[in-house]
Amino acid sequence: MQAVKNRYSFWGDRLKKLFSRPQLYHAIFWLLALSGFLYVAFTQNPGYSPFFIISNQILNIIFFAIIVYFNLFYLVPNYFRWTRLSHYLGLLVLSVIIITPLKTMAFYLKFHDYPVWQSSLLADQWNSFYINLLVAGFSTIFKIVSDWARHQREKTELEAQTMQSELNFLRTQINPHFLFNTLNNLYALTLKKSDKAPEIVIKLSEMMRYMLYECNEKEVPLVKEVNYIRNYLELERIRQIKEIDIQLKLNGMITNQRIAPLMFIPFIENSFKHGLGNHTSQGYIHITLDVKPEKVHLNVVNSKPQTLPARSEKRSGGIGLVNVKRRLDLIYPKHHTLEIQDNPNSYEVDLDIDLSNS
Known about the structure:
By secondary structure, the chain is of the alpha+beta class. The protein has helices at 2-19, 22-44, 50-79, 85-110, 115-123, 125-191, 197-213, 222-239, 265-274, 318-331, and strands at 220-221, 244-251, 258-259, 283-291, 295-303, 336-342, 346-354. The longest helix has 67 residues, at 125-191.
């Protein structure tokens, strides 16, 4: 089975390399052009031998190719500049003036047994010149369009690579951020020899397994992201000392929806750190997740104390929010809305994500 896969992989790579070569497309173009010329020639000259007609059109294609490739590989690279446009056009016309009589001479010698064709050939030299010039002009237009398309493709690929690099960088910032905060909580409980410490270790191991083995993907199943949130909330319930009201409400049905990993948790974590974390008495955090087949809505509301400690404004929790906002802009551009309301007694986050374009 592995040998069959390797064989398919080998031929797949060979075909991929073949179809990535521009020479193949040039050959296909000239073969199609030759087929068109032959169809017209056989239609207009039914009484002549096939070899005579085919050889005429092959010779015709050869001279067209000389004009095109001399223009593409010599004139355009060396002289096609806006500052030297008149120079380029002059050389292009001059090259056609030189090639046209050479083409006429070659056909004249070939038609030595056809004096009528020779006479028609000499009479149509101006038409031949205009056709050759038109072919050269089309090759210039083709070069301009193909270069523009290539530059656009390279620009798009560079932007995609830059975006992916930035996403990877932001993700590496998010994972240690969660680990740092959770380890701090665990450390505080171990100092107090709390019985809750072992349970936190289990929850933490589940969270770490998710971050290490799942979050490296571009998207994860929504159900796994929700399970991660549930583990996080359970961990918070265990470590919280004062009475708080923690609620998670899930509306709708989770089926096969997929979402970028760790997209919700920074908002939830922020609510605990800067909302409940500053309470000296009872507080609350209410999380609602509305799930639809191609959309998901997150609402997080947390209480705020009447007065915040001065030092809380300098805490490092803002790193997660800055990163998740940037990730939303990169992954779901124009397909998400984020509203944050900082009220006197509460802090509320509303996030809508359209999953259909992910």
